[in-house]
Amino acid sequence: MSTPDSAPRDAAAPRDLTALHDLTGRVAIVTGASRGIGLAIAAELLSRGASVTISARKQPELEAAAAELAAGAGGATDRVLAVAGNAGDAASRHDVVHRTLATFGAVDILVNNTGINPVYGPLMDADLDGVRKIFDVNVVAALGFVQEAYKAWMGEHGGAVVNLASVAGIRSSGVISAYGASKAALIRLTEELAWQLGPSIRVNAVAPAVVKTRFAEALYSADEEATARPYPMKRLGAPEDVAQLVGFLVSDAASWITGDCVRVDGGILSTGGL
Predict the structure, then answer these.
(1) What is the rounded CA–CA span in Å between residue 31 and residue 113?
(2) From the candidates 120, 179, 220, 231, which is the catalytic residue?
(3) Which of 62, 64, 118, 252 is a good FRET partner for 272, with 20 to 30 A between their CA atoms?
């Protein structure tokens, strides 16, 4: 006997796939968005119709990024807001969220992209103050932004959160071990938040491998070809590779995905390497 839940999928009414990916009328905050992956994510969300607040520490770089985004969106300066601030500072997080709300009237999407990595090498040699700073910015600040967005808008209206993790949070890397430990914590935080905030708020993470940005330059600049060789895709990532995944995860096309960490790694983890 057939029930609604067991009905064949082709019996359902056809869905408008374009509408599922459309973000028109929604408002996003992207942190760490003056360049690299964050800037690409902001551009992707704008291209899908969202209004976007970008945040980063340095005002001149942020203003240049905002101008670039507006130009790429056909001069839509009314859909781009730049708010400078330190993600690790509670007052700055509050300012970013509440200025977004005052300007656009909502906070539907939060992308926690800000990340730092001042500590390289073996953990036995690691400066503990540096490790504390990594966790404060990469994990605690991400939670702080979710708290601000929840209290200001999402708690009542719902929304979507994406946290930028890393394959270093899934598999040991050695050279960026403190950073990797913080990203592992961010992945667990994502799972906890998804459980606590559902069903109205979805929370996911993405885990890139080496992406060609200034942040990751030390990992590939000596010999990019050699760095890319172990990857099944035979190239390193581009910021747009990550941005397109984030755009999907915050859209209605991903409406039953939450608590997940999606790898965007060119297949490197499938080889057993990192």
Answers:
(1) 5
(2) 179
(3) 118
pLDDT tens-digit series, residues 194-236? 999 999 999 999 999 999 988 888 778 888 899 999 999 999 9
Q: How far is CA 243 from CA 96, 118, 136, 164, in A?
A: 21, 24, 24, 10
User: In this predicted structure, what is the pLDDT of residue 214?
Assistant: 85
Q: Which helix (DSSP H) or strand (DSSP E) does residue 163 occupy?
A: strand 159-164
Q: Tell me how far CA of residue 113 lies from CA of 8, 52, 54, 150, in angstroms.
A: 39, 14, 10, 17
Answer yes or no: pTM beyond 0.90. Answer: yes
Four-residue CA torsion sign, 60, 61, 63, 68: positive
DSSP summary character for residue 106: -
Domains and CATH numbers, the chain: 23-269 (3.40.50.720)
User: For residue 66, which of 49, 96, 88, 46 has the smallest C-alpha distance?
Assistant: 46
> Position 108: which residue type?
D
Q: How confident is the model at residue 1 (pLDDT cuts 50, 70, 90)?
A: very low
Report helix, strand or coil for 237.
strand
CB contact at 8 A, 209 and 164: no
